[in-house]
Protein backbone atom coordinates (compact mmCIF):
# COMPACT_ATOMS: atom_id res chain seq x y z
CA UNK A 1 0.00 0.00 0.00
CA UNK A 2 1.35 3.43 -0.95
CA UNK A 3 1.29 5.95 1.91
CA UNK A 4 1.85 9.60 0.98
CA UNK A 5 4.06 10.54 3.94
CA UNK A 6 6.19 7.39 3.93
CA UNK A 7 9.71 8.16 2.62
CA UNK A 8 10.51 6.71 -0.78
CA UNK A 9 13.95 5.09 -0.72
CA UNK A 10 15.66 2.76 -3.14
CA UNK A 11 18.12 0.00 -2.36
CA UNK A 12 21.13 2.28 -2.85
CA UNK A 13 19.76 4.76 -0.30
CA UNK A 14 19.29 2.04 2.31
CA UNK A 15 22.68 0.46 1.66
CA UNK A 16 24.32 3.86 2.14
CA UNK A 17 22.66 4.25 5.56
CA UNK A 18 23.84 0.82 6.71
CA UNK A 19 27.39 1.43 5.51
CA UNK A 20 27.42 4.75 7.32
CA UNK A 21 26.05 3.56 10.66
CA UNK A 22 27.09 -0.09 11.11
CA UNK A 23 30.62 -1.43 11.58
CA UNK A 24 32.00 -2.86 8.36
CA UNK A 25 33.00 -3.97 5.95
CA UNK A 26 29.43 -4.16 4.63
CA UNK A 27 28.51 -6.37 1.69
CA UNK A 28 24.78 -6.50 0.92
CA UNK A 29 23.42 -9.73 -0.54
CA UNK A 30 19.69 -9.09 -0.40
CA UNK A 31 17.08 -6.33 -0.11
CA UNK A 32 13.35 -6.19 0.65
CA UNK A 33 11.03 -3.24 1.17
CA UNK A 34 8.13 -3.56 3.61
CA UNK A 35 5.04 -1.68 2.44
CA UNK A 36 2.51 -2.62 5.12
CA UNK A 37 3.44 0.17 7.55
CA UNK A 38 1.61 3.49 7.64
CA UNK A 39 4.36 5.91 8.72
CA UNK A 40 8.07 5.09 8.47
CA UNK A 41 9.84 3.56 5.51
CA UNK A 42 11.19 0.10 6.36
CA UNK A 43 13.69 -1.91 4.35
CA UNK A 44 15.38 -5.22 5.15
CA UNK A 45 18.94 -5.98 4.11
CA UNK A 46 20.78 -9.30 4.18
CA UNK A 47 24.52 -8.90 4.77
CA UNK A 48 27.27 -11.25 3.62
CA UNK A 49 28.48 -11.79 7.20
CA UNK A 50 25.12 -13.36 8.13
CA UNK A 51 23.46 -10.33 9.69
CA UNK A 52 19.90 -9.46 8.74
CA UNK A 53 18.81 -5.93 9.60
CA UNK A 54 15.87 -3.60 9.09
CA UNK A 55 16.40 0.09 8.38
CA UNK A 56 13.59 2.46 9.38
CA UNK A 57 13.45 6.06 8.16
CA UNK A 58 10.97 8.64 9.46
CA UNK A 59 8.92 10.96 7.21
CA UNK A 60 10.40 14.32 6.26
CA UNK A 61 9.98 16.85 9.07
CA UNK A 62 8.44 19.38 6.68
CA UNK A 63 5.38 17.19 6.06
CA UNK A 64 2.04 17.78 7.74
CA UNK A 65 1.74 15.39 10.70
CA UNK A 66 -0.52 15.04 13.71
CA UNK A 67 0.65 16.85 16.81
CA UNK A 68 1.56 13.67 18.68
CA UNK A 69 3.60 12.44 15.68
CA UNK A 70 6.27 15.12 16.05
CA UNK A 71 9.58 13.48 17.09
CA UNK A 72 8.00 10.06 16.63
CA UNK A 73 11.34 8.41 15.84
CA UNK A 74 12.76 9.73 19.12
CA UNK A 75 9.80 8.17 20.89
CA UNK A 76 10.35 4.81 19.20
CA UNK A 77 14.06 4.76 19.97
CA UNK A 78 13.36 5.47 23.64
CA UNK A 79 10.68 2.77 23.69
CA UNK A 80 13.17 0.26 22.26
CA UNK A 81 16.01 1.24 24.59
CA UNK A 82 13.96 1.18 27.79
CA UNK A 83 11.81 -1.79 26.76
CA UNK A 84 14.85 -3.94 26.00
CA UNK A 85 16.39 -2.99 29.36
CA UNK A 86 13.18 -4.19 31.06
CA UNK A 87 13.27 -7.56 29.32
CA UNK A 88 10.58 -6.85 26.75
CA UNK A 89 11.10 -9.07 23.68
CA UNK A 90 12.01 -6.60 20.92
CA UNK A 91 14.51 -6.64 18.03
CA UNK A 92 18.04 -5.61 19.00
CA UNK A 93 18.65 -1.92 18.36
CA UNK A 94 21.92 -1.38 16.48
CA UNK A 95 21.61 2.33 15.72
CA UNK A 96 19.17 5.08 16.50
CA UNK A 97 19.33 8.78 15.70
CA UNK A 98 16.18 10.82 16.36
CA UNK A 99 17.66 13.90 14.65
CA UNK A 100 18.10 12.23 11.27
CA UNK A 101 15.10 9.95 11.84
CA UNK A 102 16.98 6.69 11.26
CA UNK A 103 17.08 3.48 13.24
CA UNK A 104 18.57 0.07 12.44
CA UNK A 105 17.33 -3.06 14.18
CA UNK A 106 17.61 -6.82 13.78
CA UNK A 107 15.28 -8.48 11.32
CA UNK A 108 13.05 -10.99 13.10
CA UNK A 109 12.91 -14.64 12.10
CA UNK A 110 9.20 -15.17 12.76
CA UNK A 111 6.06 -13.76 11.19
CA UNK A 112 3.36 -11.36 12.29
CA UNK A 113 0.54 -12.90 14.31
CA UNK A 114 -2.13 -12.48 11.58
CA UNK A 115 0.03 -14.47 9.15
CA UNK A 116 0.46 -17.33 11.62
CA UNK A 117 -3.10 -17.45 12.97
CA UNK A 118 -4.40 -20.03 10.49
CA UNK A 119 -1.70 -22.48 11.57
CA UNK A 120 -2.79 -22.41 15.24
CA UNK A 121 -5.53 -24.21 17.08
CA UNK A 122 -7.93 -22.08 19.14
CA UNK A 123 -6.26 -23.37 22.32
CA UNK A 124 -2.82 -22.38 21.04
CA UNK A 125 -4.11 -18.95 20.09
CA UNK A 126 -5.60 -18.31 23.55
CA UNK A 127 -2.35 -19.43 25.19
CA UNK A 128 -0.50 -17.01 22.94
CA UNK A 129 -2.88 -14.18 23.88
CA UNK A 130 -2.11 -14.79 27.56
CA UNK A 131 1.62 -14.71 26.77
CA UNK A 132 1.14 -11.44 24.88
CA UNK A 133 -0.50 -10.00 27.98
CA UNK A 134 2.27 -11.22 30.26
CA UNK A 135 5.13 -9.97 28.08
CA UNK A 136 3.54 -6.61 27.25
CA UNK A 137 3.14 -5.96 30.98
CA UNK A 138 6.93 -5.64 31.14
CA UNK A 139 6.67 -2.24 29.45
CA UNK A 140 4.79 -0.99 32.50
CA UNK A 141 7.71 -1.86 34.80
CA UNK A 142 9.56 1.09 33.24
CA UNK A 143 8.93 4.42 35.00
CA UNK A 144 9.30 7.78 33.30
CA UNK A 145 10.36 11.04 34.90
CA UNK A 146 6.97 12.61 34.06
CA UNK A 147 3.75 11.73 32.27
CA UNK A 148 3.22 12.19 28.54
CA UNK A 149 4.96 11.68 25.20
CA UNK A 150 8.78 11.72 25.45
CA UNK A 151 9.35 14.40 22.83
CA UNK A 152 11.31 17.63 22.86
CA UNK A 153 8.34 19.98 22.51
CA UNK A 154 7.01 18.82 25.87
CA UNK A 155 3.46 19.56 24.73
CA UNK A 156 1.90 16.80 26.83
CA UNK A 157 4.51 16.38 29.54
CA UNK A 158 3.08 16.98 33.03
CA UNK A 159 3.39 15.96 36.66
CA UNK A 160 -0.13 14.48 36.74
CA UNK A 161 -1.69 11.90 34.44
CA UNK A 162 -4.90 13.88 34.15
CA UNK A 163 -3.11 16.99 32.89
CA UNK A 164 -1.04 14.98 30.43
CA UNK A 165 -3.85 12.78 29.06
CA UNK A 166 -6.29 15.65 28.70
CA UNK A 167 -3.63 17.56 26.74
CA UNK A 168 -3.19 14.50 24.50
CA UNK A 169 -6.93 14.39 23.79
CA UNK A 170 -7.09 18.15 23.22
CA UNK A 171 -4.20 17.85 20.74
CA UNK A 172 -5.89 15.23 18.60
CA UNK A 173 -9.18 17.13 18.69
CA UNK A 174 -7.25 20.20 17.49
CA UNK A 175 -5.81 18.09 14.64
CA UNK A 176 -9.31 16.95 13.72
CA UNK A 177 -10.65 20.51 13.71
CA UNK A 178 -7.68 21.79 11.73
CA UNK A 179 -8.00 19.12 9.05
CA UNK A 180 -11.80 19.01 8.91
CA UNK A 181 -11.98 15.32 9.83
CA UNK A 182 -15.57 14.11 10.32
CA UNK A 183 -16.72 13.37 13.87
CA UNK A 184 -20.00 11.69 14.86
CA UNK A 185 -20.47 14.20 17.70
CA UNK A 186 -19.24 17.77 18.21
CA UNK A 187 -15.65 17.97 19.41
CA UNK A 188 -16.76 20.11 22.36
CA UNK A 189 -19.04 17.33 23.60
CA UNK A 190 -16.31 14.72 23.30
CA UNK A 191 -13.85 16.95 25.14
CA UNK A 192 -16.38 17.58 27.92
CA UNK A 193 -17.02 13.85 28.41
CA UNK A 194 -13.29 13.14 28.69
CA UNK A 195 -12.47 16.15 30.88
CA UNK A 196 -15.22 15.13 33.31
CA UNK A 197 -13.04 12.12 34.24
CA UNK A 198 -10.14 14.17 35.64
CA UNK A 199 -10.50 12.75 39.15
CA UNK A 200 -10.51 9.21 37.82
CA UNK A 201 -7.35 9.87 35.82
CA UNK A 202 -5.67 11.30 38.90
CA UNK A 203 -5.86 7.83 40.49
CA UNK A 204 -2.84 7.03 38.31
CA UNK A 205 0.26 8.27 40.13
CA UNK A 206 3.19 6.53 38.38
CA UNK A 207 4.18 7.33 34.78
CA UNK A 208 4.60 3.83 33.35
CA UNK A 209 5.86 3.15 29.83
CA UNK A 210 2.99 2.22 27.50
CA UNK A 211 3.65 0.92 23.97
CA UNK A 212 0.02 1.67 22.91
CA UNK A 213 0.26 0.02 19.49
CA UNK A 214 0.36 -3.72 20.19
CA UNK A 215 -2.22 -4.74 17.63
CA UNK A 216 -1.60 -8.18 16.14
CA UNK A 217 0.39 -6.87 13.16
CA UNK A 218 3.04 -5.53 15.54
CA UNK A 219 3.45 -8.87 17.31
CA UNK A 220 5.83 -11.41 15.76
CA UNK A 221 5.56 -15.07 16.66
CA UNK A 222 7.45 -18.25 15.88
CA UNK A 223 6.94 -21.96 16.51
CA UNK A 224 8.80 -23.42 19.48
CA UNK A 225 9.16 -26.77 21.20
CA UNK A 226 5.91 -26.28 23.09
CA UNK A 227 3.89 -24.54 20.40
CA UNK A 228 3.77 -20.98 19.16
CA UNK A 229 5.54 -18.27 21.17
CA UNK A 230 6.01 -14.52 21.01
CA UNK A 231 9.28 -13.64 19.33
CA UNK A 232 9.11 -9.86 19.68
CA UNK A 233 7.04 -6.68 19.66
CA UNK A 234 7.83 -3.98 17.10
CA UNK A 235 6.90 -0.35 16.27
CA UNK A 236 7.02 1.72 19.44
CA UNK A 237 6.16 5.05 17.77
CA UNK A 238 2.99 5.66 19.81
CA UNK A 239 4.64 5.03 23.19
CA UNK A 240 4.10 7.37 26.13
CA UNK A 241 4.41 7.42 29.92
CA UNK A 242 1.04 7.04 31.57
CA UNK A 243 -1.51 4.54 32.85
CA UNK A 244 -0.51 0.87 32.29
CA UNK A 245 -4.20 0.08 31.68
CA UNK A 246 -3.90 1.94 28.36
CA UNK A 247 -1.83 -0.99 27.05
CA UNK A 248 -4.95 -3.16 27.17
CA UNK A 249 -6.56 -1.12 24.38
CA UNK A 250 -4.51 -2.69 21.58
CA UNK A 251 -3.99 -6.18 23.02
CA UNK A 252 -7.75 -6.75 23.34
CA UNK A 253 -8.92 -6.51 19.76
CA UNK A 254 -10.85 -9.71 19.11
CA UNK A 255 -13.56 -11.85 20.71
CA UNK A 256 -14.53 -11.59 24.38
CA UNK A 257 -12.74 -14.86 25.13
CA UNK A 258 -9.56 -13.59 23.47
CA UNK A 259 -9.82 -10.28 25.30
CA UNK A 260 -10.22 -12.06 28.64
CA UNK A 261 -7.10 -14.15 27.95
CA UNK A 262 -5.05 -11.02 27.17
CA UNK A 263 -6.24 -9.23 30.33
CA UNK A 264 -5.54 -12.32 32.43
CA UNK A 265 -2.00 -12.40 31.12
CA UNK A 266 -1.49 -8.65 31.54
CA UNK A 267 -2.99 -8.16 35.02
CA UNK A 268 -3.36 -11.66 36.43
CA UNK A 269 -6.88 -10.66 37.49
CA UNK A 270 -10.03 -9.00 36.23
CA UNK A 271 -10.11 -5.23 35.85
CA UNK A 272 -11.74 -3.09 38.52
CA UNK A 273 -14.70 -0.85 37.59
CA UNK A 274 -12.38 2.17 37.69
CA UNK A 275 -9.90 0.49 35.36
CA UNK A 276 -12.71 -0.47 32.97
CA UNK A 277 -13.78 3.17 32.89
CA UNK A 278 -10.26 4.43 32.26
CA UNK A 279 -9.92 1.85 29.49
CA UNK A 280 -12.97 3.38 27.78
CA UNK A 281 -11.21 6.76 27.89
CA UNK A 282 -8.11 5.35 26.23
CA UNK A 283 -10.19 3.66 23.55
CA UNK A 284 -11.82 7.03 22.85
CA UNK A 285 -8.37 8.55 22.46
CA UNK A 286 -7.10 5.87 20.09
CA UNK A 287 -10.22 6.06 17.95
CA UNK A 288 -9.79 9.83 17.66
CA UNK A 289 -6.21 9.26 16.46
CA UNK A 290 -7.37 6.73 13.88
CA UNK A 291 -10.01 9.14 12.59
CA UNK A 292 -7.54 12.05 12.49
CA UNK A 293 -4.75 10.21 10.68
CA UNK A 294 -6.94 9.46 7.67
CA UNK A 295 -6.48 13.09 6.60
CA UNK A 296 -2.69 13.23 6.88
CA UNK A 297 -1.46 9.77 5.87
CA UNK A 298 -2.70 9.87 2.29
CA UNK A 299 -4.53 6.55 2.51
CA UNK A 300 -6.28 5.04 -0.45
CA UNK A 301 -10.04 5.68 -0.38
CA UNK A 302 -10.95 2.12 0.62
CA UNK A 303 -8.59 2.26 3.61
CA UNK A 304 -9.96 5.66 4.67
CA UNK A 305 -13.62 4.58 4.44
CA UNK A 306 -13.01 1.37 6.36
CA UNK A 307 -10.86 2.90 9.09
CA UNK A 308 -13.20 5.84 9.64
CA UNK A 309 -16.16 3.47 9.77
CA UNK A 310 -15.05 1.06 12.46
CA UNK A 311 -13.16 3.66 14.52
CA UNK A 312 -16.23 5.93 14.56
CA UNK A 313 -18.37 3.00 15.68
CA UNK A 314 -15.97 2.22 18.54
CA UNK A 315 -15.73 5.91 19.48
CA UNK A 316 -19.51 6.19 19.85
CA UNK A 317 -19.69 2.95 21.84
CA UNK A 318 -17.09 4.07 24.38
CA UNK A 319 -18.50 7.60 24.71
CA UNK A 320 -21.89 6.02 25.45
CA UNK A 321 -20.31 3.80 28.11
CA UNK A 322 -18.77 6.82 29.82
CA UNK A 323 -22.02 8.75 29.77
CA UNK A 324 -24.21 5.85 30.91
CA UNK A 325 -21.99 4.79 33.81
CA UNK A 326 -21.10 8.25 35.07
CA UNK A 327 -20.98 8.26 38.91
What does this structure look like?
By secondary structure, the chain is an alpha+beta fold. Helix content is 42%, strand content 16%. It has 2 domains: 11-106, 2-Layer Sandwich (Phosphorylase Kinase, domain 1), CATH 3.30.200.20; 111-324, Aminoglycoside phosphotransferase (APH), C-terminal lobe (Aminoglycoside 3'-phosphotransferase, Chain: A, domain 2). Helix 5 (161-179) runs antiparallel to helix 6, helix 5 packs parallel to helix 10 (273-293) and helix 10 (273-293) packs antiparallel against helix 11. It starts with 10 loop residues before the first helix and ends with a helix. The mean pLDDT is 93.
Please tell me the overall pLDDT: 93
CATH topology of the largest domain: Aminoglycoside 3'-phosphotransferase, Chain: A, domain 2
Distance between the termini: 45 Å
Question: What is the structural class?
Answer: alpha+beta
Figure out the total of helices.
Answer: 11
The CATH class of the largest domain, by name, is Alpha Beta
DSSP strand count: 10
* Biggest sheet details: 5 strands, antiparallel
Name the strands of the widest sheet in spatial order: 1-2-3-5-4
Indicate the overall shape. Answer: globular
| Overall tally of structural domains | 2
Helix content: 40-55%
Assigned CATH architecture of the largest domain: Alpha-Beta Complex
Query: Helix and strand succession?
Result: HEEEHEEEHHHHHEEEEHHHH
Point out poorly predicted stretches. none
Strand content: 15-25%
Rg calc: 20 Å
The CATH superfamily name of the largest domain is: Aminoglycoside phosphotransferase (APH), C-terminal lobe
